[in-house]
Amino acid sequence: MPHTGSRYLAEGPRVGIRHFTYADGAEFTARARESQDLHRPWLFPPATADAYTAYAGRLIEDPTKAGFLVCEKGAEAGAGKGGGKDGENGGENGGDGAIAGFININNIVEGGFQCGALGYGAFAHAAGRGLMREGLDLVVGHAFGPMRLHRLEINMQPGNAASIGLARSCGFRLEGFSPKMIYIDGDWRDHERWAITAEMRTSG
């Protein structure tokens, strides 16, 4: 069934955000497999059922993490809910409730920090359509609203122009450069650090 507005934590004109569930595994992994050319070498989301179960479990059960699926809304999304090429779940390119991408807040620290580290990825059928821009704005609003966080940061490899452009478009500012910061795809990778605070968002 399509996801209705009441099932979203927040929604905009074209997308809504909601938490991961274990039942999303088939659609998520199908889209991850279809998007490997887009994601490599920056991102490696789970592409098998077992990997998804472990990945989603951490986001669902760990209080220092929060995972959000960015889902398409309305008729413009396509003929039916996407997720496979066999037609069982609707059109290949999406549908009402189809998963356009994901945005996770990791390393959530409360107390005097009230901060978290963002990671995200679009799926191939949604790339370049502005859906993740809308979704990221919704997640930031949710983080600074109901989650009561004060600061979000994103660490990205300098060559990942699409992710950097998305962060910039949502008001994040470049704060610094961290050499050999994160082990990805067989090596320690340099990262740029982008961040936004609640005050930056309210000041426009």
Molecular structure report:
The model is unreliable at about 1-5 and about 75-90 (pLDDT under 50). This protein has helices at about 25-35, 35-40, 50-60, 130-145, 160-170, 200-204, and strands spanning about 10, 15-20, 65-70, 100-110, 115-120, 150-155, 175-185, 185-195. With about 200 residues, it is of the alpha+beta class. About 25% of the residues lie in helices and about 30% in strands. The chain has an eight-stranded mixed sheet with strand order 1-2-3-4-5-6-8-7, sandwiched between helices. It is globular. The protein has one domain: Gcn5-related N-acetyltransferase (GNAT) (Aminopeptidase), CATH 3.40.630. The protein is built from six helices and eight strands. Helix 1 (about 25-35) crosses helix 3.
In short:
Helices cover 27% and strands 30% of the residues. With 204 residues, it is α+β, with helices and mostly antiparallel strands. 37% of the residues are buried.
